[in-house]
Amino acid sequence: MAKKILLSAVLCIVAMLCIDKTQTYHEIIFPLAGMTVAGGAALYLGIRHRLSVENIVLLLFAVGFILRVFYISYTTMTPEVFLRQHDMRAFGGSEGHSAYIEFFYRNGFALPDFDPTTKSQFYHPPLHHFLAGMWMKLLTWCGMSYARAVGSIQFLTLFYSCCCMIVSERIFDMTGLKRYGKVLAVAITACHPTFLLLSGSINNDMLSVLWIVLTVYGVLRWLRNPCMKTIIPVAIFIGLGMSTKLSVALVAVPTALVFLVKFIQAFKNKTVRNYITQFCVFGVVCVPLGMWFYIRNYLLYKVPFGYVLRLPDNSPQYLGDRGILERLFDLSENPLGRAFLNNPYYNNSDYFEYNPLVSLVKSSLFGEYDYSYVPMITPFCQALLTVNIILVIISVTAWFYCLAEKGIFSDGTEKLFLLTFQVIMLVNFITFSFQYPHTCSMDYRYIAPTAMIGAGLIGIFAEHSVTKIRSEKLCMSVKISLSVLTGLFCSLSAVVYLLLT
Q: Once rounded to an integer, what is the mean pLDDT over residues 37-59?
């Protein structure tokens, strides 16, 4: 895994040097095409003698990387103009993620000396913004222009997205995926539109997703070998994650649950002393690393723990006047008839999207945006939405299958951890959408890691369910159906985000 991450870092730097974001897309298409041809040629030479599962996975990684680089290449990011970004302002201002990043670029290791709730987005913990600011400082120190350094922040988030692909593969390995199912899971993760969108978004979403995915990997690793060597990385991942974004704290809940289960088991076996030592060290590492910013803000400025900026109730996106039952169950306006979120800002809809579950499946593919202005793209988007809904249904079905079948996971605690993780993320998403009743609160980016778990579940279902089918024809039909659906999902995702240029 370390070698793949190092290779990804090198490739991201090469891509950054080849692509100047201050130029137009047409001016960077030639170096971009050259990188694609070179990467394809290298892959062909590497796998032409043996098309093993490992080589197919490498090929899928390459496809995922190229899709991400293409997306970044046409996603404008300059100091004055930016495209498909969240809570941004032009650089040089005093609010938004841009101002937060620029603060560290100008001031180095100094922290803001004002109430973070008085300026938009400064209430977020600073790790991502600090890294982005230092990245800009390094690039400008090396001679890169300030404008190009701003655009190059996207190659930092590109690296985070590539790391998610690599760590996800290790998680799939640890859940027992080896063959056909692993290929399906990796393919969905590599081509999932959410990770394409986040790779080009310079806010703290992508880094927070990476910390959550690393925590899932770390917990599974600890469950196989519960010792100090494996628990400390989990503490670091959660701590750094909470220093990036508050929502990373959600993964601490299923982690604490499996710790409790293991503690009770150890208590029965009279081996509890070793676990007490591990948990104490975990707390000593994780709590200060994760809570320092929130404690600082509370002591200095009385900022409540868990503070999140709330849009005013007079915002056009406000949904608080709709009842809970209406928001959850009212489908009278055929919300799935349009692939994109209903939003009068972007399309001719006469209302803002209000159903969190509908928003979930739409925004996981297209964010909060409407691509219908692009010629020929809408039918592909509608087809992608349909395939995505089918895969979501299969993923949910796979959970019930995993709960019913024994022997799928090496330890029942793993099943408990992954199930609790999915449930908590989903419940928090729905709760959050009612606590902060605005359309923008229902974006899938808040629970993006569930896409990786969902892909793994589809892979597990594909590998294990067919072993229960006695009919060879039916078994083959199931395999072909899952392959076709996964292939359609990846192909349609690629077509949509290539047409978006």
A: 69
Could you read off the pLDDT of 175-192 as tens digits, one per residue? 888 888 899 999 999 999
Angle (CA) 67-69-71 rounded to 5° is: 70
Cβ density class 48-70: b for 16+ within 10 Å, e for less: eeeeeeeeebbbbbbbbbbbbbb
Whole-model pTM: value is: 0.94
> Residue written as tokens 């928090």?
428
Q: Which amino acid is at 168?
A: S
From CA 501, how far away is CA 490, in angstroms rounded?
A: 18
Grouping H, G, I as helix, E, B as strand and the rest as coil, residue 407 is coil
Q: What is d(CA 283, CA 491) in angstroms, rounded to the nearest whole number?
A: 45
CA distance 327 to 356: 7
The encoded tokens of residue 277 equal 């030592």
Task: Quote the CA–CA distance of 264 and 276 in Å, as a whole number.
Answer: 11
Tell me the DSSP string of 32-94: HHHHHHHHHHHHHHHHTT---HHHHHHHHHHHHHHHHHHHHHHS-B-SS-BSS-SS---TTSS
Stated length of the chain: 501
DSSP letters, 197-224, are HHHT--SSHHHHHHHHHHHHHHHHHHHH
Q: Give the Cα separation of 266 and 492 in Å (integer).
A: 49
Strand partners, 77: 82
Tokens of 351: 């209302």
CB neighbours of 303 closer than 8 A, spacing ≥ 6?
Answer: 115, 116, 117, 123, 294, 297
